[in-house]
Design a protein that fits this description.
The protein is α/β, with parallel strands linked by helices. Helices cover 26% and strands 26% of the residues. The protein has eight helices and 17 strands. The strands form three sheets. Strands 10, 11, 12, 13, 14, 15, 16 and 17 form an eight-stranded antiparallel sheet that branches. Helix 5 runs antiparallel to helix 7.
């Protein structure tokens, strides 16, 4: 018997579902999420993919409710897979698959357990991340590792760009280990709890720029929350100014900042720059002001030559 029930969402869910089908797995049921109309949906649809293959789909509000449990039981699955599904699955669901329950997580476990691991990895300036297929347990992201695939994080990669790499890493990891898993002897190694780290979810407000920080940390924040995520922002005079893409400039770069500008934004050579509290410089490659693209000319029109922020009090003011 090669029947599985798949809980899946997002691009990782789509690609990993296709890997299972390519290996001849009988997917008896796909459990996914109904898209939230208030969310910016920039990723592929598991429900649409399942429909393309004629697979039965349900979208329960609570994946652990009685109706969903009964639907899973009716499938009599040997395996259960979770690919970027957004809810924790109860023990009785995990126990319903005698061949095992497996989750795909977007980090190199045991590092970056928890929510939005890619965004956190970029925020912390990591140089690599990846995808991990692991055994599901009651506690999240703690089960034995079945397969991992690493990908690099380049200095100017955004979280969205890294996510694209992790989607491919997830596909490679699952594809490589699936024959052994289906044969009943998946490779496994226990996680080292001494190497573990855990991070929670993030909110749009977490993208507010702290101008007391250095240039590297501001650059990493911009990368970590760049579109399709909400963006790194500051609020001069009640406006919303977002930095969407920046580039860290070498320490010896000579760009004349206005006298007395400790931290903030300024124009020079018809370009927009950010100066951090440590004196480091960022070139602002893309920005917007209240949703309107912001270049050096519009910046000077609205704010003059520079926009200074007061690092000690973490307040913002216009000149």
């Amino acid at each position: 018997m090669t029947r599985a029930v798949v809980f899946a969402y997002h691009d990782v869910g789509v690609r990993c579902l296709k890997v299972l089908l390519a290996h001849g797995v009988d997917v008896g049921l796909v459990v996914t999420h109904a898209d939230n109309p208030g969310e910016h949906i920039w990723f592929d649809s598991v429900a649409a993919t399942a429909a393309d293959y004629g697979l039965p789909v349900i979208t329960p509000d609570d994946a652990n409710d009685e109706a969903t449990y009964a639907a899973v039981q009716a499938c009599n699955p040997r395996w259960l897979f979770s690919f970027y599904f957004r809810q924790m699955l109860a023990n009785r669901l995990l126990a319903s698959a005698p061949g095992g329950a497996y989750n795909l997580h977007g980090s190199l476990l045991p590092r970056y357990r928890g929510r939005v691991p890619i965004n956190w990895a970029v925020l912390h300036g990591e140089t690599e991340t990846g995808a991990t297929l692991h055994v599901m347990q009651e506690k999240p992201d703690r089960g034995a590792i079945v397969a991992q695939q690493a990908v690099p994080i380049l200095p100017d990669d955004t979280a969205g760009e890294v996510f694209g790499k992790v989607v491919v890493a997830a596909e490679i990891a699952l594809n490589g280990c699936l024959p052994a898993l289906l044969a009943g002897h998946p490779p496994m190694r226990e996680q080292d709890p001494r190497q573990a780290s855990y991070f929670g979810g993030r909110k749009p407000e977490d993208g507010r720029i702290d101008w007391t920080q250095g240039a590297d940390r501001i650059h990493n924040l911009v990368r970590a929350v760049a579109p399709p995520y909400p963006g790194a922002f500051t609020s001069p005079g009640g406006h919303t100014l977002r930095l969407l893409r920046t580039r860290r400039l070498p320490q010896d770069t000579l760009v004349p900042a206005p006298p007395g500008l400790d931290a903030g934004l300024f124009t020079a050579q018809d370009q927009l720059y950010a100066r951090a509290a440590d004196g480091g410089l960022l070139r602002v490659l893309s920005a917007d002001l209240d949703g309107r693209p912001l270049d050096a000319a519009l910046f000077r029109e609205r704010f003059g030559a520079c926009l200074s922020f007061l690092p000690a009090a973490r307040h913002e003011s216009t000149p």
